[in-house]
Amino acid sequence: MSDNMPKKNFLSFQLDPKLFEPATQEEKEQQVQMRESVSFMKDAMRRLYKNKLSMVCIIIIVVIMLIAFIAPSVYPYTYEAQDLSRKYLEPFEYSQKEQAAIDAGESVFPHLMGTDALGRDYAIRVIYGTRISLLVGIFAAAIVIVFGILYGSVSGYFGGKVDMIMMRIVDVIYALPDVLIIILLSVALKDAISKSSSELVMKLGAGMVSIFIVFGLLYWVGMARQVRGQILSIKEQEYVLASRAIGASPARIIRKHMIPNCISVIIITAALQIPSAIFTESFLSFLGLGVSMPMPSLGSLASDARTGLVSYPYLLLCPALSIFLIVLSFNLLGNGLRDAFDPKLRS
Amino acid sequence: MDSKFLFYIVKRLLMALLTIVLVIAITFFVMHAIPASPFSSEKAKSDATIAALEAKYGFDKPVPVQFLNYLKNICQLDFGLSTAWVGSTVFDLIKGGFAYSAKIGFTAAVLAIVSGVFFGCIAALKRGGWIDKTVQVVTTALVSMPSFVVATILLLVFGLKLKWFPTLANMPGGLVLPILSLSMYPMAYITRLARSSMLDVLGQDYIRTARAKGLRNSKVIFKHALKNALSPVITYAGPMMAYILTGSMVVENIFSVPGLGRLFVNSMLRTDYMMIMGVTIFLAIMIILMNFISDILYKVVDPRIDLG
């Protein structure tokens, strides 16, 4: 209160004119932002870039993906071409026929990982198997993201009875033993698929199709739970109330406020889902329920390698090492993402 | 609190039973969606024989009636007759196989829990030391290896190259490698679980209080820390059961153990539908029951947990 103002009366609406004076230069400077505000996404990415292990994993995954998706189109051998004159070659060994061709001055591409019992080039088979594994992992992550987000956000947003019923369904699905159901479905589908006319379905085989079906039916529940939990807590925040007060539709609130705030949970859960999907696929292929012959998968390659294991251990080690590298990279990347996106969880 | 706990047990039990019925229903209806009759794949039989067999197993009745019958039979432990192993009931085959699988699985589980908790605690107590670092690297590698990779590599190295252990299960000491292969993944998982929960517990106030009272280090760890650090390990019991049971399909095949897993894979190869249904349901019941038990145990061990 300034001195020349009369004493303020009780209940009188009296303004202090000083409050309406223009701000001084000094006061203005206080409002200037010294540093650009860092968004959550940028902050997380910066933490991820700093994590050397995660970056190495990203590089490994990208390199493996490039090899798996580009190499088959430039590689001189195909995964199904058999040549019994060159069976069981060691890596970089040539068959007599090939040696003769080399001696005659022709260039023969070396068998980087040798050949298998039917004389098929092993490197390209491992590459195809890797491709199957990656496809399964990516597909699983996509399904988990789409279904999980839709289901979880609807359940969390509406709450109450809807939430209760939807979550009971999730509880039941969560309790189902997934591997057993996949095996059951692939046994049952084998018959139906062998009569299918679709070329893609034929190529993938009953095991693959049932893996995808079961991922679609069962795998998203973990994500749905996570997203729902997150949405439930975000729903109580003031900014959601504010946006509802100005008349935003539920769809807009879910899209603009809920999903961006769930993004860290979504990324972490999806990243950790990939290795577990790859695990399941290779397990089934090992049992002979995965892709159909002659399409190779890392699991079926390892299974075939059991005959002649002592003499040709590289037939086991190549696919085994390959799956180990893929799963390890995804696991470590998943941990890195968790550290980057959810620093509270860091142990 | 007590009645609330009882209510929780009942609720959880109902949930488990519902899941079991659901698994039976899924199994039944998926198998019935197959156009082929269980007998059509067998050697040529006359139509009259097939009709008689179908009448015997009730396949001529409407599907819902068949389902209720099947459900009733399962409650009486009657899973039907095997078509591939003629003359044996599915339940007898399961019983015979499970005797082996249970022995291997139980030993593997105990080995995984004991060594996992041990390594996890050591790593937590020596945090940042070389033991901790080694444990972290090894466990990270092990949880990235599928069961068939671990099993075939163990077979190759210790069975075929070094010849320390026999490669077939029916020889003396032949169960060592299958047990080791089954326990690797759960052991690594439990080690990581025990390590992080031990680290968490060691940072709590009551541990500081216990130390401030002047208790011996061993007493602090065994009496105060370990008990509380173990409760997350209990929650892993259900998933571990699932891992060991499904993993045994691979491991038993690799080491020729005549257990349930190998039986299951063989019945898939021989398209014995009654057998596939029976084993699927049996394994699912084991997994669901283990989940139920571990949930209840978890609440018993740690009463602070909210009974939602």
Written overview of the protein:
The complex is a heterodimer of chains A (347) and B (308). Chain A has 13 helices and no strands. In chain A, helix 8 crosses helix 11. Chain A is mostly helical and 347 residues long. The longest helix of chain A has 37 residues. Chain B is mainly α. Chain B has a domain of 179 residues: MetI-like (MetI-like fold, Orthogonal Bundle), CATH 1.10.3720.10. In chain B, helix 4 packs antiparallel against helix 5 and helix 11 crosses helix 12. The model of chain B has no long low-confidence stretch (mean pLDDT 85).
Secondary-structure class of chain B: mainly alpha
Distance between the termini of chain B: 13 Å
Give helix % range of chain A.
55-70%
State the CATH architecture of the domain at 93-271 in chain B.
Answer: Orthogonal Bundle
Mean pLDDT of chain B: 85
Proportion of residues in β-strands of chain B: under 5%
DSSP strand tally of chain A = 0
Name the shape of chain B in a single word: flat
Q: Note the run of SSEs of chain B as H and E.
A: HHHHHHHHHHHHH
User: What is the end-to-end distance of chain A?
Assistant: 54 Å
For the CA atoms, what is the radius of gyration of chain A?
Answer: 30 Å
Number of strands of chain B: 0
State Rg of chain B.
24 Å
Give the averaged pLDDT of chain A, no decimals: 81
CATH fold-type name of the domain at 93-271 in chain B:
MetI-like fold
